[in-house]
Structures are given as structure tokens and as C-alpha cells.
Amino acid sequence: MKRVLLLLPTTGYRNEDFLAAAKKLGVEIVAAANYCHQPAPSWGLAPIMALHFDRPEQAADTVLREIGGNLDAVLAVDDSGVELAALLSERLGLPGNPAQAVRRVRDKLAFRQLLREREFLCPEFHHLPTGEDPRKLFPELKFPVVVKARRLSASRGVIRVDDFEELMRAVNWVRAIQSRADRDARDLGLIMESFIPGSEYALEGSLERGELTTLALFDKPDPMDGPHFEETLYITPSRLPEALQDCIHEEVARACRVAGLAAGPVHAEVRVNDQGVWILEVAARSIGGLCGRVLTRSLGMSLEELILRQVVAEEPLTIAGEGGAAGVMMIPIPRRGIYHGLEGLDAAQSVSGVTGVAITVEPGQIIAPPPDGATYLGFIFARAASPADAEMALRIAHRRLHFDIRPEYPAMEAPAAERH
Fold first, then answer.
1. According to the CATH classification, is domain 124-194 in 3.40.50.2000?
2. Does the chain have fewer CB atoms within 10 Å around its N or its C terminus?
3. Partners of 282 in the beta sheet?
4. Between β-strands 73-76 and 3-8, what pairing exists: parallel, antiparallel or unpaired?
5. Is 55 helix (H, G, I), strand (E, B) or coil?
């Protein structure tokens, strides 16, 4: 039986999907997680269940000290664990990407520097160190500008600004977001880059011995022009001309090569305009949230099963799925507040073409849209004869959902004496 160390984030959407895929394949899973580190010993948790994913060197030492028996692979469920997975694979002599390559593509500044050096289409960008006054960069900036945290994901800490006043507010805002989300924030600073106009697309792929296979190319039909960049609709197959789809594949494959990525899942975000294909990011992981479920029919298996098969199989994978179009909506959060419930779930699920609605937020949970938040209300899935039909089904279903989101701090009516 193959044995895989699986890095499970405590807030991950896909933990159960990976565990189900492992059970189906007869793969033994050794679980490691980043549960709360202080109470963990009193809960009786093993040391590998209280790892600091954001301290890969320290966490790798703990795993190597505590793990028993041989491993066939190390996998991270999401972005938070990919550096640790790569480092452990290196130290154990297992297949995987070099830790340096994974670290480079996670860092938005380092990745932009790489793209510029290798002559990809690349926006003008500047590094703003922590504590430095952004006004020193004013003479060099061309608006609109996008202010970004260095290594957050899911549109967290990303804001478009159109003038100097907005820029000052955005810098303070993104610095606050990054300081809460990344304990290395003081060492990282921010990146500011020129806004790239155009339509956005996402490529889901798989690398094997450095060769990229495109599993799906997703259209993002909703405009992604800011000021915040919340993901909503992913529709596949893409409606782009085949030649342009091939160009996106080649640019993503080239970016993987120059970054040093050679194995495992890849999720890439690109923009396309009259100048060509602009790489926004290439991540050494698969698509986030529950979005991977939209590919089950086209792959002939779950995306998690495909990823596990790739790391334990002795022969190249063959994909034999069904045709047709599919789509997923990451249900957007309209405003910050406390989620209390929803109406219209049955009505949404009854829409022709909708194959499921998964509500992932819990009553009583504080929620926030980007750039502060990094979660969704849930996911709507659809299959149809055409991409346009899949998109329409998702939009109709979404309109039937009504969420009860209340303020965190209810307004208090002033006492009668104070009103006079």
C-alpha cells in the first residue's frame, strides 16, 4: 500500500475530498495539520498535528523527527502547505518540485522579477518595504495601480487604485491585512504594479517530468476590473479561439519551466488583451475551494484522485471523461457581517443544469469580502450542453439565494433622555 503524508489546513475546504480519494485508491494517509499550537499538547495531539506551515524549516524538522516508516509522497491540500511539502520531498528524496521554485512562485515580487528577467509580458512594478512612505514612488507610478500583499491568495490584500489619495488608503489597508495574515509581514513589504486591462482566465494543469497537461481552461465571464477582485464564475471549456487557448498553455508551460516547477498540480491565472497573454500567477497547487468538483465528469475522476494517482502511479495517467460544458460559482460575499442563514436553497438546486449547491459558511460566522476575507458563502455547480447555458444556470440559481447577513455590532437606540 502506498503511503502519503497529507498536509491538512485546519480551514481547508478540500480535506474530506482528499481523504475520500485516498480511501477509494487504497492509499494510506498520514495526516499532518496546523491545528492551534499552544493547546495541541493538552489535547493529546501528536506533534505533526500542530505544525507551523508558515515555518517550513521548523515544521520539516518536526515531521522528520516524528514520522515513522517510509513515505511515497508528500502532498499539500492548499497554498499554505506547498512550501513545506516541497521541502519535505527534497529531504526525503521523493518526487516533487524544488522548494526554491515553490517559494519563488508564491512570492508575488520574486515571481514578477522572474517574469521580467525572462521577457514575459509584465507590468511595471515596485517594491514598497514595510514602513516606507509610498509617496517616494509617486513620480514613477502610472495609474491605475494595483497594490498587493506579497504572498496572500484568493484575492486577499489586492486593491486597485486610480489616484494618489486612493493609493495612500490602499497601502494602509493592505499593510493591515498582511500584518494579520502573515507573521513575516514586516520583512515582506508590498508590491505595487500597473493594472493590466483585459479578460481573465484560469488554467488548471498537471506537470509530469516538466511537461504541462491542461486539464481545463476556465473563462471568467464577470469583469475583473477592481477595485477588489473577488472570484465568482469559472466556466469551461473556454470560448476563446483555439489558437489563443494554445498560446495560454504555452505561456503557462514556459513560466513553469523558468520557475523550476516540474511535477504535480498547477493553477495559473492570466489576463488576455490586444498585447497578448499576461501571466498573473502560477501556483504549485490545484484550484482552491471546492471548485475542483466541477471537473469530475470531464476527468472521469475527482481532481483529488487524479492528483493522488499522479504521485503514486507507476504509469502515466490517462484521462477519459465526458464532454459538455461545466461551471462553478464561488458565491460572493456581499458585505461584512455575521452570517445567520439563507432562503431559496431548494429553488436554486431546482434550476435546470444545476448539479449541486454547497453552502460552506456556518451560522454565527463572521464573513467579509475581499480584500479582507479569504472565504466564500459556498459554491454552485452546473453542467450543460454549452458554456453559455452553464453560465446562465449558475446566474439564475444565484439570484434565488437570499442570505441573512447582519452587522457585527447591532445599532443601539439611544436612551430617551439622550434624544431630547
1. no
2. C
3. 268
4. parallel
5. coil
CB 60 within 8 A of CB 84: yes
pLDDT of residue 420: 46
In 3D, which of 7, 6, 100, 15 has the Cα closest to residue 53?
7
Instruction: Tell me the torsion sign for CA atoms 250, 251, 256, 257.
Output: positive
For the chain, report the end-to-end CA distance as a whole number of angstroms. Answer: 77
Looking at the domain 3-103, which fold is it? Rossmann fold (3.40.50)
User: What is the band of 49 on the pLDDT scale with cuts at 50, 70, 90?
Assistant: confident
Of 154, 120, 420, nearest to 283 by C-alpha is 154
352-366 pLDDT, tens digit each: 999 999 999 999 999
Q: Is the pLDDT of residue 117 over 90?
A: yes
Close Cβ partners of 39 (under 8 Å, ≥ 6 residues apart)? none
Residue 330 pairs in a beta bridge with: 379
3-state secondary structure of 195: coil
Domain definitions of the chain by residue range: 3-103, 124-194, 324-420
One-letter amino acid at 78 equals D
Instruction: Determine if the pTM surpasses 0.85.
Output: yes
pLDDT digits (tens, 9 = 90+) for 33-46: 987 655 555 656 67
- Name which of 93, 43, 80, 37 is nearest 62 in CA terms: 37
CATH architecture, domain defined by 324-420: 2-Layer Sandwich (3.30)
Cβ neighbourhood burial of 322 (10 Å; 0-12, 13-18, 19+): exposed
In one-letter notation, the amino acid at residue 312 is V
